[in-house]
Structures are given as C-alpha cells and as structure tokens.
Specification:
Layout: H1 2-9, H2 12-32, E1 41-51, H3 57-72, E2 78-86, E3 89-96, H4 102-114, E4 127-133, E5 136-144, H5 148-162, E6 168-174, E7 179-184, H6 187-192, H7 197-207, E8 210-218, E9 221-228, H8 234-238, E10 241-244, E11 250-252, H9 253-256, E12 258-263, E13 268-272, E14 275-284, H10 290-304, E15 312-319, H11 320-349, H12 352-372, H13 382-390, H14 392-412, H15 415-420, H16 435-463, H17 471-503, H18 515-548, H19 550-569, E16 575-576, E17 582-591, H20 598-616, H21 619-624, E18 631-639, E19 642-649, H22 659-670, E20 678-684, E21 692-697, H23 703-718, E22 723-728, E23 733-741, H24 743-747, H25 752-763, E24 766-772, E25 777-783, H26 786-789, H27 792-796, E26 799-801, E27 807-809, H28 810-813, E28 814-822, E29 825-828, E30 831-840, H29 846-864, E31 869-872, H30 874-905, H31 910-915, H32 918-932, E32 936-937, H33 938-967, H34 972-982, H35 984-1002, H36 1013-1066
Parallel strand pairs: 7-25, 16-32
Antiparallel strand pairs: 1-3, 1-4, 2-3, 2-29, 5-14, 5-15, 6-14, 7-12, 8-9, 10-11, 13-14, 13-18, 17-19, 17-20, 18-19, 21-30, 21-31, 22-30, 23-28, 24-25, 26-27, 29-30
Helix pairs in contact: 1-16, 1-17, 2-12, 2-17, 11-12, 11-13, 11-35, 12-14, 12-17, 13-17, 14-16, 14-17, 14-33, 14-35, 16-17, 16-30, 16-33, 18-34, 19-32, 19-36, 20-22, 32-33, 32-36, 33-34, 33-36, 34-36, 35-36
Amino acid sequence: MNGIVNWFVHNPIAANLLMLAMLIGGYIGYQDVKKEMFPTYMGNRIDVAMEYPGASASEVEQQIVVRIEEAIADLPGIFQISSESRQGFALVGIDVIEGFDVRDLLSDIKSRVDAINTFPASAERAIIKQQVQRQFLMWIALFGDADHRTLKDLAYRIRDEMSVLQGVSDVVITGLKHDELSIEISEANLQRYNLSFNEVATAIRHSSLNVPAGTLRSKNGDIHIQTRAQAYDHSDFSKIVVRSQKNGAQLLLGDIASIKDGFSEDNIDFSMNGKPGLNMRVNISDDPLLFEGTKNARKYIKEIQKHLPPGVKLKINLESKNIFDSRFNLLKNNAIGGLILVYIILMLFLRPMLAFWVVSGIATTFAGAIWLLPYLDVSINMLSMFAFIMVLGIIVDDAIIVGESVYRQQKSGNPENSRENGQHGKTGELGKTGKYGKHAASAGTQTVVRPISLAVISTIVFFLPMILVPSTVLLYTSSIFYVVMLCLIFSLTESLFILPSHLSHMKAEQPSKHALLKTLGKSRRFFAQKMEDFSNNTYRAVLERVLQHKTSIFLAFFVIFTTLLTLVAAGWISFSMFPSVPMPQVVVQVSYAEGTSFASTHKTAQHILDQVNATSINTQLLRKNDNKPFIREINRELNGTSISVFVGLTADEQRKVSADEVAEVLRHGIGALPEAQSYSLNSSQIAGGPEITLNLNMHDNSRDIQKVAVKDVVNTLASYPGVRNVRSNLDSERNEIEIELKPFAETLGVSISEIAQQIRYGFYGVEVQRIPRAKEDVKVMLRYTAQERASLNTLETLRVRTSDGREIPISELANIKRVPGPSVIRRVDRKRNIQITAEVSDSHDANKIVSTMLDENLAQWQRTYAGFNLSTDDTLRTQADFLPTMMWNFVKMALLVWALFAISFRSLFQPCLVLLALPFGFVGAVLGHMLWGMNFSMFSIFGLLACCGVVVNDNLVLITRINQLRKQGLQSLDAVLQAGVDRFRPIVLTSATTFVGLMPIMFERSLQAKFLKPMVVSLSCGVSFATLAALFLVPCCYYGGYRFKSRFTEYFISLKRKRKSVSESLSP
C-alpha cells in the first residue's frame, strides 16, 4: 500500500485523473440512478383473493377459505397461513419462509388452487399474486359538476392514456361503480304469470347470444355463418320473449320486469371539496423513473385539462416528486451548511488549502459512491439520502487524519526520513514544493495508512448487521448499507491516493498582503497556536494527572456506563421501530361491520368532515401558523361500510403546524367512534396500522365466553399509559337470517338447496350473463325489485316453487330466525382467532407494554379460560426481535473486528483498547435522546453504527501512535503522554467536525427533519462522549495494562530467581 501511495504522490496527473473520473462518474451515475421515495419491495408473502358474491363471512370461510387452506397446507416453504373472510370476499395470505424461492411457491399455490373443483358455482376465479409494495407517483382527482357516467368514461380514458407514459406503471381508479344491467321482477308478476327465476333466466340466455354456426365453403370462397342475437342494452333486453302462447301471443321481458341499465348497487361515493368525483392513484414504473414519470404525467394532465367538459376538473392531490424534492433540498441544504461549518472549523486550525482539499474530498467521495449505485441496483431514496448525511462524519474523519499527519510532517520535518528515501533538504525548506514536499505528503500518509485502512474495514464490518436482518426490515436497511460501504471505499481511495498528491504541492505559508486574508491568517494562527498550547500544556498536564489515578478514572467511566444501562433497562427511554416520517396529509380511515346501513356510515363520514372543517379554523393552530390556512383540500370516499377521508395540508415549507398537531386536534374532535370495527388516523409515511395486534385463540367456541375473555384483555390493555383505540373483531357482529328446513318439507321432496337457491335468486340475484362493453364486462342480474329486497316481509311471504309447478309458502317449509353472525372471520394457521388491536402514542414502547401485560396476566387468563392462548402478530414479533438480533449481530461483528485488529497489532490486548470507547458512544447517544426527549428507533441504531466508525478511527490512530513511539524507545508513560498530545488535535477535530457538520439538521426546525434527528443525535452525541473516552480512558487502560504486564513479568522473574537461589543453596 505504501508503494501505491508514493506512486500517486509522485504522479499528480494520475491522482487528478482519478479524481476527475470519480466526479464525472458521479454526474453520469446521478443521471442513471433510480429515484424514488422508498424502495419498491417484493414481499415474502403471497395473497389469494377470491369473491363469492352474496355469501356471509361464515359461508365464505367454509366454502372458500378452508378449501384453499387444506389444498396448500402441505406445500414446502410456507411459514404461516392467515386468512380473512368477509361478506362475499376471501383473502388468504401465505407468509414464505425466509430464503425460500417465492416464485416456486407461487407456482405451486396456483396449481393447487386451480385444481380445486368444489368451489361454489357462483364464486369468481381466484386471483393469486405475490405481494408488491409499489410506490405511488401521484394521486389525482377527477371531480366537478357531472354525473358518474361522464366521470367514469373520462377516468377510463385518463387511465388508458396515462398508463402508457414513460415512468408510469399503471393507474388505479377508486370510487368507481361498475356497470350493471339489472332486471327486476316483482313477486306479484312471477305469481301472475306463473313464472320462476330459473324460467326467466333460461329464456334470456337462450335469446341473448351470439353463436358461430360454421363456414359455408362455396366455389367463390369461404363464408362464415354467424348468429347475432346478443342483447346489449335496455331496448334489446326488453324485446326478449319470455313465453309464447299457442295463439301467437308473446310475453316480453319488458312487460313483466323493470330493466335498469346503470351501475351496481354498491354503496360507493367519492367527493373532492364537496364535488362528486373519482380518485386515481398513478403508480411509478418498475424502473423507477420518478422525474421522467412526473414530468410526463404533468404534461399530460395539463394537456387534457383543455379538453374536459365544463365544470369538470383534474387536479393533482399529492406528488411523490414534491415530497422527494422537499426532503432532498432539506438534506442538500443542511449538508452544504454542514460542510461550510466543517470548513470554518478546519480553517481555524489548519491551513486554508489543507482545509479546502479535505472538504473537496467529501464531494469527490460522494460522487464516486453515486457512480456505482446503479450497478448495485440502489436508488436515490429517502433512506439512501439519509445514509449520505450519516456517513459524512466518518469520511471527514479519514481526510482530517491524513491531512493532519501530512501537516505535522511538513511542520516538524524529519531529515532522517528524507535520507531514507534518498531525499535531502533542510528543515526550513519543509513547506516548499518539489521533492521534499512530495516526501512530506508521502511520509505523512504512510504513517496513517494502516489505521485508516483498518478503520474503514472495521466500519464496514460494523454496518454488516444492517443486511443480516429479516426481509421486512431489509427493505429499509440495504440502501443505507450499500451507500455507507461505497462512501467508505471511495473515502479511503480519496484520502490515500488523491489528497496526498494535492497536499504535496502546498508551498511554505507566506504572510498575505491582502488585509482581509492577513486578518484571517492571524486568526487561524492564533486558534492553531492556542490548540497546540492547550494540547502541549493543559491536556498533557491533565492526562498526566489522570494517569496517576487510572483506576479511579476507569471506575468512573464504568459506573457511568452501568448507570445508563440500568436506566435503559428500567424503561427510561423507549424503543420504537420506525420514527414517524411526516407527510403533508392526514388520513382518517373508519370501517364498520358488514351490514351496517349506508345511512349510518354516511352520518359518520359527515361527522368527520365537520370536524375537519372545525380543525381548519382552530384558533391555536391558526395562531401558530401565522393565521394562514394549513388545509388545502379534503377528499372523502365511502365504499360500503368503509370511510376514507384525505386531508391535504399545505407544503411543509409554507406551514408551521405539523401534521401530527393537526391529527391530534382532529382525533380529539372525532372522538372514539366505539361502534366502528376499525378506526385509524395517520399523518406519517411509515405508520399506517395499529402498533399492537394480538391474536387470541380459545378452545371454547361459546361466543359469550369469548366475549368475556376479549373484554378482559381489552380492558387490561387499555389501562396501560399511552394505549388508545383498543378494538377487537369480535365486536363486529351483524344480524343474520338463518333458514332451517322443517320435517314437512322433506315429505314434499323439497330440499334446503332448492329453498336457498330461490332465496338467493330473489335477494342477491342470478347472474344471467355478462355482456362486453368498452372497458369492462357488464353483469346482467335478475332479481326482485329494490323495494321488495329491502323488506323482511318479502322473505316471510315468499312462495317456493317446486319442480312440479306448485307454489308453497316458505313458512310451511322452513323456520326463519335471526341469529348473530361475525362480519369478519380471521384465521391463523387454519384456526379461528380473535384479533385485538390498539394504537400506542410515540412516547411509549408497544413491545414493552405487551410484554408487561403478558407477564402480569397471561397465567391468570390461562387458568380462567380453557385453551386460552394470546400471541403477537408477525409485525410486532419482528420489531421485538429486531433489537436483540441487531445487538447479537453487532457483538459478532465486534468479535470479528477484534480478531482483525489482533492480527494487525499482533496483540490480544490492544484491540480491546480500540473497542473500549464503543460502549461510551452508546452512553452519549442515550444521554442525547434523553436530553432531546426522543425515543430510540431503528435510525438511532444506524447513527450508533456510524459513531462506531468515528470512534474506532480515533482510537486506532492513538494506539498506532503509541506503538510508534514505543518502537522509538520511549517509556510507556512518556509514549502515552506524547501520543495523546500528538493525536489530540486530529481526535478533537474529527469530533468537532462531526458534531458541527450535523448541527444544521440537529437544530433544524423544519417538520421534514424530524425523522432524521434520532440518527443525528446518536452520532453527534455518541461521538462527543466517546471522544472523552478516547482522550482519557483509553490512555489510562493502555498504561494500566502495561503496568500490570510489567509487574506480572517482574513477579515471575523474581520468583524464578528465588527458586534458582534456593536450588543453588541446596546443591552440594
């Protein structure tokens, strides 16, 4: 390595070409690299979705879910099967074992499900796909004074035209009602004409069809024969003949039925700022091309707005690029501010040219890393941008150490080293360019080659746990790891090969004739001299005093560490997996049990809108926002029993109130909504579901006993501080009507299936056929009139038509009774379970709450309720396992680093000294979080890993310097003192530049910087406290270890001498 360093110092053109290549490569790489908000994630989960129209949750479970579970249960690679049954819909989720090929399992599941031939005839075909977390490009709303048909046709046109744009994957429309042709016949007409639904359906199918009838092969050519009688609209269907009389009279469908060519009866309604409309999610392409996609989409929207009908608008509600640009500008501005502060700090103690090349090396390093990002399939996203800020302190560290070492060589001079390299010069010529300048750069760099190389390798090793995590977390950590790794590699390249070449050309510092530069020069020399005086006098004296009380110092640090560790274990600081990433929006989602009236759902939606409007004029929020509006738009979507309200806020730069503050006021206004099956209110990018999800299984199937057990758990969980909005799916019962066959029916030859079929035909309807239209297949449904389907009396007076033509009142054939039934049935590993969910405030730890609750209550619950089993869901388990897994992986990596250092130092003790300051980086991080009132999070751990790199680097150069001085013949005490003085400035400078470089983000008041602060606090505060350990604890331990070794050796030597003297005295 020393030879390569020397070659680059003596070949400045090569060094400049390497720098130029990195800069140009960085520019090219930035053009090619993918840009997105968060990485697209192909999950380890397969979903099987299937519709069974009109069926209850229980029926869906038995007819669909159980059959799918039984068919796939024995397939290899399945970790867990979970399912959810709702009215008319089944969803089976298959979690794949980590490392198993998802595509192979997907193929096997498709084969097994497709082979099931016992599904109900009216069930739709299963949709089987791998779960993909795709990022949105933008949300757009089409709204205005127009009917749903007009809006729908426009939405389909926009969807088709935008889907082919470069950078756009697809467009998903919400708030859409499907076309449906409904044929409604009253019970009175069926009785009047002695008809059944089957007879009418058969007549329609036989009359409405197209039949290819073959080919007529004539001498003049082939002629295709085609029967075209397919009915397509109201007019066509009304002319269909249902029955013909012998006298030629015909009973037409239009004579006995009301034919409605419109939309399905689904309760779907979307509005934008009070106007009816449709919502569209434009998804980013797989590339992903965020900038190109946004540019093309904006251009298209601007163009089509010119051709919209009067009163109809197309508006962009939310754009990924705006959020991306906002975050990018925040990081860029704070990075530039940090670099300026770093440069100012360096200028106070180093020569301006040296400080310039140190700072410019950071830009070169970043460019080199961006150059290779596309080849590792790493995108520029929120997390990779975050990594560039995080690694800033480490790469500054490398450059400062090299620059300081070269500066020291240039300042002090070493003619002996010059002669060893065949070079000559005088001490007074040290700063001049030419041979001696090159020698100073080469010699200074070679002095620190080994510690810097080891520091880079060890830092990469410390970051390895970030890719040794489950795939659910790997999504967030892999981008950070690869950015850090590339930055460290290019930082090493820049510090060892490019920076020394530039420093070799620095001339002897001459007083400037310019007044300003002269003043700056005097100021720099003043600060530099003060620091040198401080290190030579004050620090040396303090260190000498500290070394005299090394045991007390060691115990003091040990007590501080154990005290902080005890506070953490006692829960003084909580851990949350992800810090909230603020978004310019608040989303309210409410779901009621299936069967809840649309009027009730609409009433809740209106209540939410009223509270949103009240929040928009909240006095406190307006005062904090300088009396400027902070809500720009409101979207409301109703879909059956589900409500979604989107509250768009003004841009972060234009708003002083946070989305969390708006959400809190809105939450208070909306209230608890106790009747809702689920209720969430979120203002964060990562947040989206309840923090606590518990799965309860019991042997006792009695609903009453289950309700008591669930109530016990819910009340206990709600009693813990920070827990709110506790709910269970057992509360979401609905009324069902159960048909039970009487014995009399069997004597008449009437089966339960005949009764059930006729009831289904009347109330849900029979799908006669599907007719193709421009954008979808339209169902043709035959059933009772809407008025009859809304009345229980219709069911109670229904007449069952037998195969021999008789009509028998249903009351004579079956009992009709109301029973409670679940609206949602969840199963885990083929067993029913009751799901209990809760939200937890940011200041509390969900895992700790659940752990405490189970420790205190689980045994009692298991004694009270037979077969009681309460477990957390996979997400909570992953979060609970994350911290121990990271800690264990960190310990393994620390052992690997220790082994690496042991080989390099040829010592088992010195690597321990290098790693000794790491625990005190943790102490500093914890103190920082407590001071700033933050929870520990995943990003806090990332900051700690970066802190390890800085601390190891400082300790490495210190221990290396002590060893160098020991080889020159200095005694251990003198070597420790001199090494501390020699390395005081680089250690302090690295700590100061790390802290100062992160200050802009640490004190950033912008709402966007919130999620970055845990990392920044961990890194800056951790480095600051660990610096004290590097300056005082490590020298004490080194000296103490040497003293112990010396006394141990002296003891054995004296013991050996005594034995020898005793042996000689006993010999004759």
